[in-house]
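Take our chain:
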Amino acid sequence: MDVEENVTTVQKVSPLAETAAYLEAIGSTLEPDDPVVRNPGKTRAELMTDPEIEKWLKDNQARIDKYRPIVESEGSTAGNAAKSFLKVCENDRKLTIEYLAKIGRLPEALQEELAVTG
């Protein structure tokens, strides 16, 4: 299975759309202090403040910005770990933006950016 195929089979929802039930269904270890465990039925995004969502998106973009040049400069010689991590980050971002827009929590600055570039 190639990197892209692996990412799309494992990650079907945004990390911010995860619920305790979803995590249990995919076999994740549930920590008792995890907010989604303490609030069954709620997603991570529903439990986050707007500044926390903005920070998550900025951190995610920073990871993409860090790994994309590595993968692009090394081309086919970039390690599978770097390629896989970049694909995961890009997929997370795409799914998260779609999810946040769907639930009306997409930060205004990102809405404006997407309107200009989209």
Summary: Residues 1-10 have pLDDT under 50 and may be disordered. DSSP finds seven helices and no strands in the chain. The chain has one domain: 3-117. The CA atoms of residues 19 and 43 lie 5 Å apart.
